[in-house]
Amino acid sequence: PSFTALLTTRTQVQKEIVKKHNELRKSVSPPASNMLKMEWSKEAAANAQKWANKCTLEHSLPEARKTSTKCGENLFMSSYPASWSDAIQNWYEESRNFVYGVGPKSSDAVVGHYTQVVWYNSYHVGCGIAYCPNQESLKYYYVCQYCPA
Length: 149
Hints:
This is SCP domain-containing protein. By secondary structure, the chain is of the alpha+beta class. The chain has one domain (about 5-145): CATH 3.40.33.10. The protein contains 4 helices and 6 strands; from the N terminus they run αβαβαββαββ. It has helices at about 10-25, 40-55, 85-90, 110-120; strands at about 40, 70-80, 100, 105, 125-130, 140-145. It has a 4-stranded mixed beta sheet. A two-stranded antiparallel sheet has the order 3-4. A hairpin with a 3-residue loop joins β3 and β4 (about 105). α1 packs parallel to α3 (about 85-90). The model has no long low-confidence stretch (mean pLDDT about 95).
């Protein structure tokens, strides 16, 4: 997709992001008994977009991702304009390093993006994307924030 087709001010993009999150949340194993359905949050999206625009490839400070509650955050960087579904799927792929009821399969396993996507009591998601021309190769910067964290 083109960069403008990925902008989260577009209703279609918001729907894609929410739909992909809800599909993945439904597919957790074992099935969750108390998983809340994700909805779009304009407030979280504004915070995520503000952070994406800085092109700082690290997490924002916790106080920069507050709505009425504390929010978590996932970051994704790409050398090309990947679809939002691909970015979200990439976070979810960490599930292979995670065992329900145990946690990460090893001490160096990365699972934080996966657990953020499927955190049962997060029900608001808001995302933003920026093009960062000064980055060497990963010029597309995706940020999603999840509330409550």
